[in-house]
């Protein structure tokens, strides 16, 4: 028989959660907007309007969905600028210590991101935190759909992790809570990334919103207790 899991299994989000990259995201978003003549966006407006899938976010800004040609240009420009800036982004405050402490205490955690897998793994490795995760999954296709079905596959691939009732997703986006609910897990949402507190609180009762990753972990452990 395998070792019994202790505490919550946390599925971490990457961009805007463990990686503090919101300013790189804003700069890259504005570079992509400039390509099709849109005005730049402020951090506050971005956090109020951001949603997944990303084309719907652009619809909120433009009043219409971008054309296929516009989308391809914006997406290519965004990624070109973002990956040029990502290497300079640091981890969120306390992230490395939290991950190490949980692993040392026998807790399990994994990473599920919409970032392309071939970019995600090297950047996680560069930050020296790869060993703290039992599994790392980035996006392996060109779909810009949210995380719900990816979460199904991610949990199915985990070994030695108890059922979804002990899984807590920690992320910075409404989509993280949607993905958690899709698999019967719980979620804690963090205000340091892509959404405003008001946007996150709109998810509803039962999805706590926190201002630090330390608090997110404490709440996650209580939810799974």
3D architecture notes:
The protein is an alpha/beta fold and 225 residues long. Helices cover 47% and strands 12% of the residues. It contains ten helices and six strands, in the order βαααααβαβαβαβαβα. The chain has a six-stranded parallel sheet with strand order 3-2-1-4-5-6, with helices on both faces. Helix 8 links the parallel strand 4 and strand 5. The longest helix has 19 residues.
Q: How are the elements arranged and paired?
A:
Blueprint lengths: L8 E4 L9 H14 L7 H7 L4 H9 L5 H19 L8 H10 L4 E8 H10 L9 E4 L8 H10 L9 E5 L2 H9 L3 E5 L6 H5 L7 E2 L2 H12 L1
Parallel strand pairs: 1-2, 1-4, 2-3, 4-5, 5-6
Helix pairs in contact: 1-4, 7-8
InterPro entries: HAD-like_hydrolase_sf (IPR050155), HAD-like_sf (IPR036412), HAD_sf (IPR023214), PGP-like_dom2 (IPR023198)
Organism: Streptomyces rectiviolaceus
Protein name: HAD-IA family hydrolase
């Amino acid at each position: 028989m395998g070792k019994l899991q202790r505490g919550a299994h946390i599925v971490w989000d990457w961009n805007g959660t463990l990686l503090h990259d919101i300013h790189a995201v804003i700069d890259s978003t504005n570079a992509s907007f400039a390509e099709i003549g849109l005005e730049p966006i402020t951090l506050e407006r971005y956090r109020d309007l951001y949603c997944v899938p990303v084309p719907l976010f652009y619809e909120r800004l433009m009043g219409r969905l971008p054309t296929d040609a516009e989308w391809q240009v914006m997406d290519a420009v965004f990624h070109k600028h973002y990956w040029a800036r990502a290497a300079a982004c640091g981890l969120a405050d306390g992230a490395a210590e939290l991950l190490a402490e949980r692993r040392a205490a026998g807790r399990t955690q994994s990473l599920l991101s919409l970032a392309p897998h071939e970019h995600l793994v090297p950047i996680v490795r560069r930050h020296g935190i790869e060993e703290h995760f039992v599994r790392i999954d980035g996006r392996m296709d060109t779909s810009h759909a949210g995380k719900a079905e990816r979460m199904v596959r991610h949990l199915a691939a985990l070994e030695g992790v108890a059922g979804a009732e002990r899984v807590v997703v920690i992320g910075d986006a409404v989509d993280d809570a949607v993905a958690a609910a899709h698999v019967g897990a719980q979620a804690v949402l963090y205000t340091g990334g892509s959404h405003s507190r008001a946007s996150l609180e709109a998810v509803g009762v039962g999805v706590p919103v926190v201002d630090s990753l330390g608090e997110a972990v404490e709440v996650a452990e209580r939810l799974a207790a």
